[in-house]
Design brief:
single chain, Nitrilase/N-carbamoyl-D-aminoacid amidohydrolase, about 325 residues, 2 domains, globular, 6-stranded mixed sheet, alpha/beta, 8 helices
Length: about 325
């Protein structure tokens, strides 16, 4: 086939324009994010940016911004910075730090948890600010159990939950680790992930809370992202030192053996190749729980559980607590 010079010239113009557009996109840092509707379950990509507490403001903010560029270029949905990562000079919300971070959140269409020392009226707090994909302040959490010598006020607002477009999250900070009632409150609020910006690593108590309350924990001290099974997530991306990225499936769900055996058998028989049992009661783990996971794109475990009248383990525990406590109050037998 003979190609005219005019056609070739036009083609080259269009090709050049496309290449220029692609270069502009790369320069702007645009990144492909998860297409959750085309994946099994309910996937979200999280980043723990573990650059440490405090330090010289300009240097630490610059370091944080570089890390947020990296997170955005890796398609992260939500990135979390450490407790008071840019030093301990108090500022309002919004303020210079949240505004700088908000630019990156907007550029990369990602949520960012930005912990600062907040000047809230005449009081100062250790505060984690949630910035949404459009660069707007979506909420904040003030540290409840302030560490000895911080010189800050303690929150009177309690544990909070924040609804995002991928799931429900809470934030707890550093010394909050030591007070189990806060972690149970996160469970009461029905969250999928607890983010824990901190000045240290945390260790095994975090693993214990994760399995006890069936939510993911994203610690931002050492980057040891923790699965709902209580185990540290193995499949971690490390695009640069001190940044840890994991893809978490918020649709995975536990269910108790109680009252569910026949319903679960029917569900599994009718949806072979769509969902699997990741774990069950075994010699290694005597908890009488199933853990279900969707393996076919578009399939949601939690939708199927509802369809077959199967409560999640959390729903079962919450209902049991409420109904048994009510029976106790009324002096009735169970």
């Amino acid at each position: 086939m003979k190609i005219s010079r005019a056609f070739l010239a036009g083609f080259l113009v269009v090709a050049s324009a496309c290449l220029a557009w692609a270069a502009d996109v790369r320069a702007a840092g645009a990144a492909a994010q998860l297409e959750r509707d085309k994946l099994p379950g309910r996937q979200v990509k999280v980043a723990a940016i573990c650059i440490g507490f405090g330090g010289e403001y300009d240097l630490k903010l610059k370091q944080a911004i570089e890390h947020l560029h990296t997170a955005g270029q890796n398609g992260v949905d939500i990135a979390c910075l450490p407790e008071e990562f840019a030093g301990t000079k108090a500022e309002p919300i919004p303020g210079p730090t949240t505004e700088a971070v908000a630019e990156l959140a907007k550029q990369y269409n990602m949520y960012v948890i930005c912990p600062i020392r907040e000047q809230g009226g005449d009081k100062q707090y250790n505060t984690a600010v949630l910035i949404d994909r459009k660069g707007q302040v979506a909420g904040y959490y003030r540290k409840i159990f302030v560490f000895w010598g911080e010189g800050l006020h303690c929150s009177t607002e309690g544990v909070k939950a924040f609804d995002t477009d991928f799931g429900r999250i809470s934030i707890l900070t550093c010394f909050d680790l030591n007070f189990s009632e806060l972690w149970q409150q996160c469970d009461n609020l029905d969250v999928d992930i607890v983010f824990w910006p901190s000045a240290y690593g945390g260790g095994s108590p975090l693993n214990a809370y994760a399995i006890l309350y069936h939510y993911y924990i994203v610690p931002v001290g050492a980057g040891n992202i923790i699965d709902i099974t209580g185990k540290t997530v193995k499949d971690i991306e490390k695009p640069c030192p001190k940044q840890f990225i994991a893809t978490l499936d918020l649709d995975r769900a536990f269910a108790h053996h109680d009252f569910n055996r026949e319903k679960v058998k029917k569900m599994l028989d009718e949806h072979k190749g769509e969902i699997i049992v990741e774990r069950n009661l075994s010699d290694e783990d005597l908890a009488p729980w199933w853990l279900f996971k969707a393996v076919k794109p578009g399939v949601r475990v939690r939708e199927l559980l509802k369809q077959y009248g199967i409560e999640t383990l959390r729903q079962y525990q919450h209902r049991s607590r409420q109904q048994i406590n009510e029976a106790r109050r009324q002096g009735k037998k169970i």
